Amino acid sequence: MSPRHTLHIVSGKGGTGKTTIAAGLACALATSGRRVLLCEVEGRNGVSELFDVPPLTGREERRISRTSAGGMVYGLSIDAEDALIEYLHTFYHLSIAAKALDRFGAIDFATSIAPGLRDVLLTGKVYEAVRRRIKNRPNSYDAVVLDAPPTGRIAQFLNVHAAVAGLAKVGPIRNQADSIMRLLRSATTAVHFVTLLEDMPVTETEEAIAALRPTQIRIGTVIENMVTPTPLDHDQLQTAATGSVALKVPGLTIKQNQALASEFAIEAARTLQEQQRHDRLTGLGLPLAQIAFDPAGIDEGAILAIAEQLTDQMSLEAP
Amino acid sequence: MTKDYDGSAFQSAVPFLDVDKIIGDRETKIMICCGSGGVGKTTTSAAIALRAAEAGRKVVVLTIDPARRLAQSLGVGELDNTPRPVTTIDTAAGGSLDAMMLDMKGTFDDVVMAHSTPEKAVAILQNQFYMALSSEFSGTQEYMAMEKLGQLHSEAEAHGTWDLIVVDTPPARSALDFLDAPEHLSSLLDGRFLRLLLHPASGPMRLMSAGFGVISAVMTKILGAQIIGDVQTFVRAFEALFGGFRQRATSTFQLLSSRHSTFLVVATPQHDALREAAYFVDRLTEEGMPLSGMVLNRVHTSALAISPERALSLAEDLAETSAVLEVEALRRHAALMRTIETETRMMERFAATRPAVAQTQVQSLPTDVTDLTALRRIGVLLSDKD
Fold first, then answer.
1. Cβ contacts (< 8 Å) between A273 and chain B: which residues?
2. Which of A:218-277 have CB within 8 Å of B?
């Protein structure tokens, strides 16, 4: 049997609903008896806000949701400095040295002078969480979902260990960097992109995918978010978009019918544009999924609705 | 005229952000747009820059966003570290518009070459660690953006090339990292660690060096001696430059807090974006930075005052008929009205907690902003009170 995807990385341009989709995906993966970890790395408390729970702090991995299917979603907000101290403790039993480094300002110095070190530490922590299962460590998860940095930064973020490997020719850091790159390039890792069917998010998705391809990290599904479904066909939409259709809703005045028609013309034109962008994304040759727009805003119910749509459309297993 | 159904009732109580007044004030020399990703910061910056240029200001717009979006909106193809004139604007009022995108590595290299001897510059530019720092690692952006802003400002002051600099910021909270930059750099440079790294066993630090020996051993164990060596070479070569960085960061910080600068927070009426906007507003207020107000992009409106409930009930009555277009039009109207309700609720909450923040709204446009005509239209919407 093919292995399951154990690490799902979710990226997308700002404003596309990346965190919401990551949360929906975590819920979709948390089927009966499964434990899923949802990680965020930008310190925005996006995950806790979404599930309406107190902010995730420190190294705490707290249960944030029990899905109706009987699985559990845990949340973790990864902080670079905590990750470094934990790293030193776990791999080198160096808690005291870590404190000393902190006192000398070394950690602050290192993360400021080499801001890329943050990315190293953040991805390193994700690696640790994924590896728990393999290593038979406690608190292991069936799947890990990473709410990753936006499209503009994703290739750099994920490929940071290749850069590290370029710097460190030998030694433990080099070995660690190589192991992380192996995990990221493995068949059990997939990077998903969230986009709106608007020009710039689609362009950025195309650019991010082009930037990611040379890294050999696998790209999973492109998720088209906030799509307005329509029962109308192309011709009907085109007719509506011209604005020349005389709508006749009984009970509305002529003026109201006209206002409705011009409003609908804009909506129909928007839908036609969305369909063009969908065609553009089809050209990428990647699996696509669509999530319907929810005008009521996002709450826990909306996340579960997204989870259902993702389960129906995405292959949550490795090919 | 039918009153627009866009929640303007509460809006009238909120102070209006008068963009034209800010642009028209010749004392405004720097405008900085900040906000979370995807709220239209780049478009807003470009629209303001274009509007100011066509009102007679000599403008340069700097974007530090890695995606090449401003270039697309301005139709100037690839942007690089050199300001390029946008030639298709209306120059009747005597203004001009240049656009540029920050090339992080290029800016860093320029600084190195401008502030060190040729031999030292070569040593730095070829250092492994420097190469990684200046190109492959992210986060250097904020420092370099401030460096570039400082350069543009000096050039503007010295040669009168520009009289207004519009800055677009990276799409993250780190956009405000430059506020900490001078202090942060100072604490790092005066920090014990750097001095230990440079002079492990000399001067007053001698007493500390026993402790440092342990740390140094740990670092060698973890990182390998080769990295430590590279870092030491890098830091040693860089020592002279760091002082200059700090000095310039401090003067840029002062420039940004002066009356010649102003910040605009950009948001959309969504929960996430407004939460980030609140963070920016609070942070800028705390630092005593000159905040003009907030631009709310993509606000939905409708000219048809029919509630979502009524629209859905009308659609239901027609469901079994052949009036498919009518049904769909009514359903879409209902969804639009629900969106407006959600947005209004979000904006009301923001205004209630931060009533002093002036606002201007830009309504949601049916098409993407990809040319000057569309940018001009955004400019009009930005400046319009309704």
1. 367-368
2. 228, 230-232, 236, 239-240, 245, 247-252, 256, 259-264, 266-267, 269-270, 273
* Residue B138 pLDDT: 47
Q: Which chain A residue has its CA at the smallest distance from B339's CA?
A: A295
- Reply yes or no on whether the pLDDT at B204 is more than 60: no
Sequence-ordered list of residues with C-beta below 8 angstroms from that of A301, at least 6 positions apart, any chain: none
Domains and CATH numbers, chain B: 8-192+241-306+354-383 (3.40.50.300)
**pTM reported for the whole predicted model:** 0.82
- The H or E element containing residue A9 is strand A7-12
The two tokens of residue A282 are: 């089809």
Q: How far is CA A140 from CA A4, A133, A186, in A?
A: 15, 5, 19
CB pairs < 8 Å spanning A and B: 222
CB A148 within 8 A of CB A217: no
What domains sit in chain A, N to C, each tagged with a CATH number?
A: 7-228+286-313 (3.40.50.300)
- A144: β partners: A7, A37
A178 and chain B: CB distance < 8 Å anywhere?
no
pLDDT exceeds 80 at position B144: no
Q: Across the interface, which of B171, B271, B339 has its CB nearest the CB of A14?
A: B171
pLDDT band for A83, please (50, 70, 90 cuts). confident
Q: What is the pLDDT of residues A296-305, one digit of tens each?
A: 777 888 999 9
